[in-house]
């Protein structure tokens, strides 16, 4: 896949506090790439540097290999929401499209199509201040895609949206990627990332901790866990080999297993008299990986496993 945006060796400090350390990743045409990390990790700072809202101390950002970032080819939904309040929906959409040199007639057609798609038909002449928060957010999303950007940067696009609107938005983001847009998405909703993204880049305290395809990350980093429903003595469960951690509730137990176990072999080690009403063997979720990384539990492991060589997997 063609690399559209390339970020190389980004460094950024605020006064004497360094908040980005050697951040490098790329976003390719037609992919949805997630940028993840705990609060304060450096996601928005990275995005603001890409958008030219601030400048890096070191490093290079290129678009199709060129240093010049063409603003009219980028769509951006910032973390801070809010468009001009005292302006009608259609006027703000056309104004923003015009700023990107996008033809007005086409912009109007697209605006009306998207308003309908996002359940905002008939709202084109309503003032922004009269919309609900979620409605205004959908208009802001429309403003970020109206000019058919090649690169779309979405900072927490789903926050504050009801489930139906989230689904509509997800579908539209997938559509845009299918049609060739490169999408960089920042989200704290790991289930959404797991559902939608092709690759992910995770930052912790301004440093890369994980970078790779979702499949790669799960294969290399998500150990197996075994959930057993059935009432069993904890003492007996504790005898089972290759278990890293046990979470036990009333009649359900989750066994987090060591890396490198072979599921079929491990299952044979369960005691014959164990009460099993139901058993599920799967890998830990991205949500659990995130918590492990954010609490530094597996930080070392993450760095070891996702070395430079894996980046272009
Ligand atoms: N303008 C600024 N001046 C000084 N420090 C800043 C500024 N902007 C961000 N920071 C600091 O940089 C670090 C990274 O912040 P950033 O907003 O990039 O994090 P984030 O990953 O987007 O977090 P969140 O998930 O909370 O949005 C934080 O320690 C923050 O306090």
Oligomer status: single chain
Strand-pairing-aware structural class = alpha/beta
Shape: globular
Q: State the order of secondary-structure elements, H for helix, E for strand.
A: EEEHEEHHHEHEHEEHEHEEHEHH
Into how many domains do the coordinates divide?
Answer: 2
Q: Output the CATH class name of the largest domain.
A: Alpha Beta
Radius of gyration: 23 Å
Ligands (ions, cofactors included): adenosine-5'-triphosphate
Helix content: 25-40%
Count of DSSP H/I helices: 11
Beta strands, count: 13
* Portion in strands: 25-35%
User: Within the CATH hierarchy, at the fold level, what is the topology of the largest domain?
Assistant: Rossmann fold
**Biggest sheet: strands side by side, in what order?**
5-6-7-3-8-9
CATH superfamily of the largest domain: P-loop containing nucleotide triphosphate hydrolases
What would the average pLDDT be, to the nearest integer?
90
Give the termini separation.
Answer: 12 Å
Largest sheet features: 6 strands, mixed
Give an account of the 3D structure.
InterPro entries: AAA+_ATPase (IPR003593), ABC_transporter-like_ATP-bd (IPR003439), ABC_transporter-like_CS (IPR017871), ABC_transporter_ATP-binding (IPR050763), DrrA1/2-like_C (IPR025302), P-loop_NTPase (IPR027417). It holds the Pfam family ABC_tran. Belongs to the ABC transporter superfamily. This is ABC transporter ATP-binding protein. The chain is α/β, with parallel strands linked by helices. It is 33% helix and 28% strand. It has helices at 43-50, 89-99, 104-117, 133-145, 163-178, 190-196, 214-221, 234-238, 263-267, 286-294, 299-305, and strands spanning 3-14, 17-28, 32-36, 58-63, 74-77, 151-155, 182-186, 199-204, 207-213, 224-229, 243-249, 252-257, 278-283. The strands form 3 sheets. Strands 5-6-7-3-8-9 form a 6-stranded mixed beta sheet, with helices on both faces. Strands 11-12-10-13 form a 4-stranded antiparallel beta sheet. Strands 2-1-4 form a 3-stranded antiparallel beta sheet, with helices on one face. A hairpin with a 2-residue loop joins strand 11 and strand 12 (252-257). It is globular, with a radius of gyration of 23 Å.
């Amino acid at each position: 896949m063609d690399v559209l945006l390339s970020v190389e060796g980004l460094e950024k400090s605020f006064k004497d506090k360094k908040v980005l350390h050697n951040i490098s990743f790329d976003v390719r045409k037609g992919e949805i790439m997630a940028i993840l990390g705990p609060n304060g990790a450096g996601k928005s700072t990275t995005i603001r540097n890409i958008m030219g809202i601030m400048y890096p101390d070191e490093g290079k950002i290129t678009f199709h290999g060129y240093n010049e970032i063409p603003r009219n080819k980028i769509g951006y939904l910032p973390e801070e929401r809010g468009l001009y309040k005292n302006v009608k929906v259609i006027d703000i959409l056309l104004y923003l499209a015009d700023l990107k040199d996008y033809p007005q007639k086409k912009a109007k057609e697209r605006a009306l199509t998207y308003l309908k798609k996002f359940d905002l038909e008939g709202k084109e002449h309503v003032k922004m201040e009269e919309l609900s928060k979620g409605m205004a957010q959908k208009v802001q999303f429309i403003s970020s895609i109206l000019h058919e950007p090649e690169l779309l940067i979405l900072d927490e696009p789903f926050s504050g949206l009801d489930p139906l609107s989230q689904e509509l938005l997800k579908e539209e983001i997938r559509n845009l990627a299918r049609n060739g847009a490169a999408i960089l998405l920042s989200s704290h909703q790991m289930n959404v990332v797991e559902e939608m993204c092709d690759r992910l880049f995770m930052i912790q305290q301004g440093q890369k901790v994980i970078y790779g395809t979702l499949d790669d990350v799960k294969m290399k980093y998500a150990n197996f866990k075994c959930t057993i429903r059935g009432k069993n003595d904890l003492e007996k469960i504790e005898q089972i080999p290759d278990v890293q951690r046990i979470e036990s509730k009333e009649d359900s137990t989750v066994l987090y297993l060591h890396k490198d176990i072979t599921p079929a072999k491990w299952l044979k080690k369960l005691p014959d008299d164990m009460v099993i009403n139901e058993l599920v063997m799967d890998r830990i979720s991205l949500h659990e990986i995130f918590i492990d990384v954010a609490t530094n539990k597996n930080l070392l492991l993450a760095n070891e496993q996702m070395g430079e060589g894996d980046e272009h997997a």
